[in-house]
Design a protein that fits this description.
Elements: H1 14-27, E1 33-34, H2 46-57, H3 70-84, E2 93-96, H4 100-110, E3 116-121, H5 125-133, E4 137-142, H6 153-159, E5 164-170, H7 182-194, E6 198-202, E7 227-232, E8 245-248, H8 251-264, H9 270-281, H10 285-306, E9 321-322, H11 333-342, E10 346-347, E11 349-350, E12 362-365, H12 370-385
Helix pairs in contact: 2-9, 3-9, 4-5, 4-8, 10-12
The structure holds pyridoxal-5'-phosphate (PLP).
Pyridoxal-5'-phosphate binds near residues 99 and 124.
Length: about 375
């Protein structure tokens, strides 16, 4: 095969590869506990499923407008206006199959070859992959454990150059569970305004918070026109397989991101979109219950990991991941993650799956039952204590 040169720059999301490896081991008869994948283990709430079934019967089985069904964009605009305390109109909303395309489309629309994008590291691997794939220069900002995995705003100021065009932030964060404070966000907003930068704020975990309330960078004066909000239903409503996400941005940008939808997907599945209306405007007890459950699991996993000599783990403030420090094992992250899967039968990710500053850590998802988490912890403990 003679591939296009650009393909060598495309990265990946290791969680899917580890999942495949774990499934292959299971097929050979090995018992594996899955703590690798970032999706709620709950079923989608019944009322949302009923809404999609009804939509199918009503004939929402055809193409729709590329930017999303008008009534769905309207509901999202109202929801985002309310939760972020800003005024959003439906023409600022682009509905996408999952929230991931918003990362791709935003970088595609804004970044010329050589433009610099500052992004969190460790961070969601797709940011770095897409920046590099599209010819941008990926400039990592290190998230440090001693700073509760929040980015250091003084460091951010130093990383900005004449070539910087976009800053990507993610709070609550994957993989660390860290949260940016209101002061952090204000300081980042000041940098963005003074240097005339755009900000892509990945808020996919905004409802999965255990302490304090959600804060967004878009709330600060002068930010709305330069901010792209990424959000969606995958995590909040346990709807990862439905592929429902959206971006909220200024109208000019929305026009181009919708055009990218026309060129790539045509539109997000119509009956799937109709379920957004029920998810957002219907009862919210189920997502609240999920967060309560995650909170209990968080306690179990953080305590269990801290009980293992050679491992220490901060209490994450949001999302459903822990990012324990494994440096005292003397092993590097990838080797430890590999052996925990093949020898101990627990699928976890190396911190380096989230960038080079993830060395010294594992990422463990606690979107699994307390019973499985405890079993997984026992196996990890038995393995690590033997090292
Ligand atoms: C930080 C972050 N952003 C975006 C996404 C993508 O979400 P979706 O499944 O809606 O495409 C994920 C999913 O793992 C994520 O962790």
């Amino acid at each position: 095969m003679r591939f296009a040169d650009r393909m060598k720059n495309l990265g990946t999301e290791t969680a899917f590869e580890v999942l495949a490896k774990a499934k292959a081991l299971e097929a050979k008869g090995k018992d594996v506990i899955h703590l690798e994948i970032g999706e709620p283990d709950f079923d989608t709430p019944k009322n949302i499923k009923e809404a999609a079934k009804k939509a199918l019967d009503q004939g929402y089985t055809h193409y729709g407008p590329s930017a999303g069904l008008p009534e769905v964009r309207e509901v999202i605009a109202q929801e985002v206006s309310k939760t972020r305390n800003i005024q959003v109109t439906p023409d600022q909303v682009v509905v996408t199959p999952g929230a991931k395309p918003i990362i791709f489309f935003t970088i595609f629309t804004l970044i010329n070859p050589g433009d610099e994008v500052i992004y969190p590291n460790p961070g969601f691997p797709i940011y770095e992959s897409v920046i590099q794939f599209l010819g941008g220069k990926a400039v990592p900002i290190k998230l440090r454990e001693e700073n509760d995995f929040r980015l250091d705003t003084d460091e951010l100021k130093k990383l900005v150059t004449d070539k910087t065009k976009l800053i990507i932030i993610n709070s609550p964060q994957n993989p660390t569970g860290g949260i940016l404070t209101r002061d952090d966000l204000k300081a980042i907003a000041d940098v963005a305004i003074s240097k005339d930068l755009y900000v892509l704020t990945d808020e996919i975990y905004n409802r999965i918070i255990y302490e304090g309330k959600f804060e967004t960078i878009v709330q600060f004066p002068g930010m709305q026109e330069r901010t792209i909000i990424l959000d969606g239903l995958s995590k909040t409503y346990a709807m990862t397989g439905w592929r429902l996400g959206y971006g909220v941005m200024n109208k000019e940008l929305a026009y181009y991101e919708a055009r990218l939808m026309t060129n790539s997907n045509s539109c997000t599945a119509s009956f799937s979109q109709r379920a957004v209306i029920e998810a957002i405007t219907g009862p919210q007890d189920e997502p609240k219950k999920m967060v309560e459950e995650f909170k209990k699991r968080r306690e179990v996993i953080v305590k269990g990991l801290n009980d293992i000599t050679k491992i220490s783990c901060k209490n994450p403030k949001g999302a459903f991941y822990v990012f324990p420090n494994i440096t005292k094992t003397g092993w590097n992250s990838q080797k430890l993650a590999d052996h925990i899967l093949t020898d101990a039968g627990v699928a976890v990710l190396s911190g380096t799956s989230f960038g080079r500053f993830g060395e010294g850590y594992l990422r463990i998802s606690y979107a699994n039952s307390v019973e499985n988490i405890k079993k997984g912890l026992d196996r990890i403990r038995a393995f690590v204590e033997e090292l």
